[in-house]
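Why do we bother with holo predictions? Because pocket geometry can differ from the apo form. Keep that in mind while you read this record for magnesium ion.
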Amino acid sequence: MINIKNLTKKFQNGDQEIIALNNVTFFVPKGQFLTVSGRSGSGKSTLLYQLGLLDIPTNGEVYIDGIDYVQVSENDRTIARLNDLGYIFQDYAILPTLTALENTMLPLLMQGYDKKEAENKAKKALERLSIIDRMNNLPSQLSGGQQQRVAIARAIAHDPKIIFADEPTANLDSETSEQVINAFIELNREGQTIIMVTHEPEYAKLADRTIFMTDGSITSDILNK
Ligand code: ADP
Ligand code: MG
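The structure, written out:
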């Protein structure tokens, strides 16, 4: 479903050129739980951003279900991000003045669902993440792990084709990290395609497959099961 060909991303830093991704090619089948590991600065986030259509590569092709999204208009990329993809970041990125339910409903309302439909879908997602009992709480009234579960509920509420997570447990203690990882495993069991960047080797091993990056290249690609 995701097919990446010869992906290169360069950044210009003053007169220095940084090759953050160096001619990366791989394929992610539907339903796979893929983790991306590697040292800080190896290009993990840059890879995720190109796959998630959050950035445009210097060279290469990013096919999602047969469409090369490098070649389409910014408007088409925006529509794909909103309708087909879901994102989870290390800092939760949920809005502090909205409740858990309102945060989860927001992207659905942006997609054009009416309020009742958005509320139903959001509640279903909060239920799947076992955080429905906190739906009327503000983020400040939730623990880090609970906030991240709200962020995951928001990311999956519209049934995205793929969810992208960039070090989602980096700010969490080991117990809440496990809750978050278990939530991903559960979603994957139900068929969700997931691409997750993680520093933690023990979480990487729980996925179907682990890609290891070094200096912008894939240096190993291991099937765990
Ligand atoms: P990782 O997520 O593995 O820590 P990144 O993908 O964030 O690594 O970064 C890979 C390399 O690209 C690093 O050398 C980083 O400094 C550089 N880089 C990332 N984003 C930018 C940017 N917007 N401008 C300049 N350099 C960047
Ligand atoms: Mg990173």
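The chain has seven helices and ten strands.
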